[in-house]
Amino acid sequence: MYGSQFDGAAAFSGGGFMPSEATQTPDTSFSPAKNRDVQALLPLTVKQINDAIMPGNEKSEFLIDGVDVNNVKLVGIICDRVGRVSDVTFMLDDGTGRIDCNKWFHEAVDANEMEGILDGMYVCAHGRLKSFQGKRSLNVFSIRPVEDYNEIASHFIECIYVHVYNNRSRKLHGGANTQPQVTNPINQSFGQSNTDASKSIEEKVLDFLHHPMCLAREEGASIDYIINQLKIPHDKITIAIENLVREGNVYSTVDDNHFKSAING
Known about the structure:
five-stranded mixed β-barrel; 10 helices
């Protein structure tokens, strides 16, 4: 019988950071190289994965809330860690269930990343869902310790937000919508607001970076992603971001191409 090791009291006790600090502090532990297809990451719980529909064969994408899902973000506690020369296996327990995880060592940085990941530790993991003979697992491509326990509560809020959004979108469209762009609620909301002629490009960019899905990303949003969502020319977006950085409203994170808001939205 399933027994969770997830410590709810510790999870919601707070990590000693003010909300503004948690939002403003850039997280450089996730590099663009490690965050494969980061724009497609979907915050989920283990229960959502276990309840997911597999519409075709085992190579098909998981279907959750009417959306095709492959790359996900999970937050939980590590248990049953087993280290080997080429990889590490462990269970991730988020209080809603457990899922088998595997982290392969493709480079030295992968092994170094796992050295500090121990049983009983809260972590944030990015990975790709897999299914073999009906058993679901996560192929982890990036993982880091959770240093601020507020992040755990924030993750579950993200999961609820995306779950409600995708279900509402599915009902509005009269059925399942498996278009990849629906995995990120930013598309529709900013596709419409971009037509607001009263706002400057700087204001539109700042509004975009204040969207919950942007705030939830440790690395922020890339310039290309902002351009794709706002449908504004590259040169104008670049100038707007330079102005915002100069004014102290936006800062770069993992590189000179990813940005996050420095103020609360």
